Amino acid sequence: MDICIGIDIGTQNSCIALPWKSTIDFVENHRGSKQTPTCVGFEDGLRIYGDDALDQKEVNIKETIDNFTAFIGRDVDEQMREFCDSCSYDLDLSERGKVKIKVKHSGQDYLFKPEQLLAMHLSNLCKIASEYSSRDVNRVVLSVPVFYSAEQRGALLDACEIANIQCEALVNETTAVAVWYYLFSSQIPTSNELTRRVVFVNVGHMHTQVAVFAFTHSTIELVCTESDSNLGGWHFDQIIYNQLKTEYCEKYMVNQVDPKSYTAVHLRSQCAEVKSRLCWSPNDVSVHVDGLPDGHVLSTVVRQATFEESSKDLLERFRELFQRCLNSSGLGREQLDAVEMVGSGFRLPSIKRVTEEVFGLKCGVSIHEKESVAGGCAIYVSSAFLIKNGEEFLYLFTPVGNC
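Above: the chain's sequence. Below: its structure in token form.
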């Protein structure tokens, strides 16, 4: 008997959740991780996925395709230009702004649409879930950013069709988080006379979504949602990368660094760790990068004050986004009960500070910040939860026929 799984398709990582008896289980891949990189690689006539693909990126740069979901169903506009220029693989933009990715595979040149790469990735995720559960997996519920257009949602369904996977529903990421919170938070009111209003801030790799939900004992109401499709953790990585690149060019008297070169890929690989250290420590971060071409070595310091100064425009955009959400809700700050942070990019202290300044509440992380979206998707297919909590959940999800 086959099973249906919930999948959070992130730009950087994907997460799989499956209903298991009376709870939701998060699937571990062959490396024991619940986060599988959204990455497809082509090497020696083989397709490789996830961590295995990322591990060989520095020796197989142009044939290792990551972050490709950023191109799903959308045209490349000025907002996307910086991201396109940073890609380590070749892009084809000849078809009216639509992106195709150039790949050499088995001695032949290919142009892949993003949804074709997503189909490969989804097939691999279903294989991971099948091996984990010892069941056939051919049905999925997929998460989508709340701002996705009909064309983008249709592209996800096209990817499922290419992969011969049945998509049962598309779930807005904000909704998935709210449903997960409703079922597993100890703070839900014990009667319908009480209402708990919660702000959910989801800072992803490439975009940020904010939503306000009102919870009673038996209902979930979406109050409002706002988003910025070009504001996320990647933009802070880019600040760090630009510093490393600039100092490298100055030290070795190089005019520029080709984004498709080993030097660029190796420098960029340091950014996530540097950002993580900036999140967890108030101190400046020392960076030492060796293994660069021609025996080059880069040693520098990323200073907290300089990093925050370079981030001020991004932080102002966060502030404006949060303020729009608060205004759209029609609520005063005193009417909000909690702020919950989720996603891969929210841990920067400066983002938390701006969040707390706008909403007037301390940021909480009481739910699985990296797994709640997948968990919310899996709840859709969990008969145990639907029977227990009634059909009130179903209106929160988007059946495929309505996309």
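The first helix runs from residue 50 to 55.
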